[in-house]
Amino acid sequence: MTATDPAAGASAIPLASDFEAATREQWLALVDKAIKGADFEKKLVTRTADGIRVEPIYTRATANEGQQSALPGQAPFTRGASAAVEGLGWEIRQGIRATDPARANTEILTELNGGSNGVLLEIEAPGQAGCRITSAADMKTALSGMRLDLAPLELKAGLGAPEAARHLIAALPGLDIPSKSALLFLGLDPIGSLARWGTRPASLTQTLAETIAIVRVARAEAPAVRTVRVDSTIYHEAGANDALELAALGATLIAYLRMFEAAGAAPADALAQMSFAVSTDTDLFASVAKLRAARRLIWRIADASGAGDAARALHISARASLRVMAQRDSWTNMLRSTLSCAGAALGGADAITVLPFTAALGEADDFARRCARNIQIVLQEESWLGRVVDPMGGSWFIEALTDETAKAAWALMQEIEAKGGIIAALDQGFIQDRVAADAAARAKAIATGKQDLTGVSAFPLLGDDGVTFAPPAAVPPVRSEEMVRPLVPHRLAEPFEALRDASDAFVAKGNPAPTIFLASIGAVIDHTGRSTWVKNYLAAGGIASLTTDGYASADDAAKAFKASGVTTACICSSDALYAEHAEATAKALKAAGAKLVLMAGRPGEREAALKAAGVDQFLFVGADAVATLKGLQGKLGVTA
After folding, report:
1. Which has fewest Cβ within 10 Å: 5, 417, 421, 486?
2. Strand, helix or coil at 273?
3. C-beta separation of 194 from 426 below 8 A
4. Considering 384, 404, 435, which residue would you say is the last residue of a domain?
5. Residues 421 and 247: beta-carbon distance below 8 Å
6. φ, ψ for residue 563, nearest 5 deg
7. Is residue 364 a contact partner of residue 110, using CB atoms and an 8 Å limit?
8. Cβ atoms of residues 571 and 600 within 8 Å
């Protein structure tokens, strides 16, 4: 930016020229003054789930200089494969899973007429629900009226992928479009299916040979088809952190390149056959960095194979994660889906699939599917997120996070390769153990309040949320013999949802709703912080709270408690009023008949005195909320 001095004519003077360049040391001195000598590392530095350091401020010096010089359209394609605005944007590829092929066709045409320009057709198979396709005729019914030369179709059939691919190829001649122009993604992923369900219908050698055979037939019928999918969403849904998800993506890519090489296909030709699927979730910046890092990882593997230029044409689809979706107050899932979609768009995904907000509950209706579709339409057509080349590029934070994520993923991928590759690592349980460790650490962070789940562990809604949905479709069993330990998907909200389910079942038997009286001492300004926290904390376990503006004395609180008819109370107020009234209030509540007296906050040095006065338990941030709430349910008589 420059300024022009009218008296000096048109000479331009940089505005920054009057200021000395600030140093990090000067900034740190000001920070130390602001945090009053507190530990900088503990106060201002955080770390991602992968242990990547997140600084409070980023400068050009902290960004990776090598990536700053890589422009969009240049290898390693971290910033995208194109430097031009023309043709940008992403494919809105929404999922269809209606059981009946005719109903699936209705939903497909509704999606396409409503603004989607691609379809992800989920097929019923062992271990997963979806459209029941048993023949080419069924496939033709499901796809009737769909212009496959304009709107791409992707199949998601899991263990049934080979059969689904054959049915689609056989159905092509009857779909009234030139099969040579069909834009298809067959979704063949035998390694992903092995990881997800722990089995495969045949031996590995037979499975890979079958995959190659289908590839050859498909390419002859539809030259534009991408036959094999490298799907890392399987690992994410089971609990993997970003680096492990990308490591699995890279290791699977290497395995498929070797498979094609054994069949006589060059790496460049093999890459042209592949598509990639990556998860995005509510951590927007991490999702952006993961997609950018994925492109760099794929390029590096391709380049090492002598096909670096082929990575320019790679296709990455982003799937909004089911892992972060909640059953309770599922309206909040619209926020989660929006963040997932925005992260995918800003990270440069070629296609995006957003889940209906009722996805964790059952089958979506037209309204839920419309909302999912419209999230994408608004972000693309109104917010124009797809009209900027690498919109997050140049952000020193994003560049640094991308670089560190790629390095962490590469290191883990090397560990997998050292085990003998992705299949051997699955066979040895190495990947399953790493996924389980990631999931356990995340579950602990959520249970102890380090990570909040809105509408679940934070600000939960008790009572009916008004959401309607159809029951989930039946899932055919997996009957094949288990070969490796499967990676079972799970949602982050499940432990809290189990508590809510237990409370609801208890009430459904004719019991009164579990309720705790809040003995809030003092004025609203004194107790509102802890009273609000306790109310939300208890609600996360399906326990209601009786609240008021507060009580002036212990006796007032005890009288109100006795009149309430409940048997448990929780004292809430400020530390100052605790020092003055907590012990007296506990004694008064016990005298009034309280069987259980709780107190919000850590007791500190007064723990012994408070317990002697009648406080039975303390509720505070940092304790395991799931275990604490389950224990409280038991004390309130809630049984499974």
Report:
1. 5
2. coil
3. yes
4. 435
5. no
6. -75, -20
7. no
8. yes
